[in-house]
Amino acid sequence: MSEVAVQARVEAPPALRFERSNVARLAVAQALAGANSTIVYATGAVIGDMLAPSKALATLPISIFVVGMAACTLPAGAVAQRYGRRATFMIGTGCGVLSGLIGSLAVLYASFGLFCAATFLGGVYAAVVLSFRFAAADCAAPERRPRALSAVMAGGVFAGVIGPQLVTHTMDLWPPHLFAATYLAQGAVAAISLAVLAGVRLPMPIAAGRDRGRPLSVIARQPHFIAAVICGVVSYLLMNFLMTAAPLAMKFCNLSQESANLGLQWHVIAMYGPSFWTGRLITRFGASRVVAAGLLLTAASSAVGLLGIQVGHFWATLILLGVGWNFGFVGASAMVLECHHAEEKARVQSLNDFIVFGTMTFGSFLSGGLLSAYGWDTVLWVSFPPLFLAVAALVLASPRSHRSDAA
């Protein structure tokens, strides 16, 4: 190797120099951290049904989980911009450890309020975890960003196994306190994730770049950005909306908790499994087309759910929903990357996530009430109008080139 080549390699930006190591660690942390969300979704409504003063509040802990995601996105972005993404990762994962410990105590003392506090901290953790995808993009050269983003999301495949299996194998370990050991296990897994993230090497924000860039009001008016946000909102909102209700709906249909756990396992695998190919699909066909495919798959999931209430119907709905979320959300995230300059990324990405998770909160609160009052079919029918809105946003934004939005 020539002296010039060696010098170029040594002087490469730190984020690119440690690209493979960073992406690998972020993918492992994604796999471990995904267990947190899976456990909350698998057990939150069931524990809520046991502890809540009213059956209508059964899904409130999951809604509080989403509130935690929304509440932390802008503060997390501010911390990342001032102290770097790694500091945000440490704080968020610490909240994940606390979430598991407090969740276990809530079950032991039959405290609904304490359990809601645990799911709020779990939501904070989940929101920070979702910023891993943007951190991976920061680690890669521009032409490799979609693949780096999807590679980290692919780590969630293992979360689809870890989370449900933790629930299945720990829920009865501490009789008569159902799920008490599950939340202790979740806290332990978060602690392992904390150790993995400690080795991530990301650049500190450049002081001169903190105040540069266009105003958010200018960036947010781009049709491409508006379409990206709407599609991200709809993809995540409907995934959360249907997944929140599905385990409780299965219980109402006299299907077993084990069936619900397995259905969620395949759902989470379907959410993250396509990430092995999503980045390549985005590179080849464009983010907008991948998002459109995701929206169609989400519509298909609701249509299948309307065909019946057997285990197979629920599983098929959850699997199609997972793949639809992956194409819709990863594609929308890639669209966001096309809408900002380097010095604007922390503010723009935080704004995107705040809008996505903030809007998702309403869907999560609505899900439990609709299910209790009107049944599973109504929950499925309500999913169609947002899908039409997202498709319309894509169509209206399509005449603009992706590059011109960031110019």
List the defining traits of the structure above:
407 residues; mainly alpha; Growth Hormone, Chain: A; 20 helices; 80% helix; disordered N terminus; disordered C terminus; membrane
Care to describe what's here?
The chain has a single domain (16-405), classed as MFS general substrate transporter like domains (Growth Hormone, Chain: A), CATH 1.20.1250. Helix 3 (19-51) packs across helix 8 (145-154) and helix 14 (275-285) crosses helix 15. It is globular. The longest helix has 33 residues, at 19-51. The chain is built from 20 helices and no strands. With 407 residues, the chain is mostly helical. The protein is 80% helix and 0% strand.
The number of strands is: 0
* Overall number of structural domains: 1
Question: What is the third-level CATH name, the topology?
Answer: Growth Hormone, Chain: A
Structural class of the helices, strands and pairings?
A: mainly alpha
Order of helices and strands: HHHHHHHHHHHHHHHHHHHH
Instruction: Give the CATH class.
Output: Mainly Alpha
Global morphology: globular
Mean pLDDT: 82
What amount of the residues lies in strands?
under 5%
CATH architecture label name: Up-down Bundle
Radius of gyration: 21 Å
Question: Largest sheet, described in full?
Answer: none
Helix content: over 70%
- CATH homologous superfamily classification: MFS general substrate transporter like domains
* Count of DSSP-assigned helices: 20
Poorly predicted parts: 1-12, 401-407
Q: How many angstroms does the end-to-end distance come to?
A: 38 Å
Domain Major facilitator superfamily (MFS) profile: 224-407
Pfam families: MFS_1
Protein name: MFS transporter
Organism: Bradyrhizobium cajani
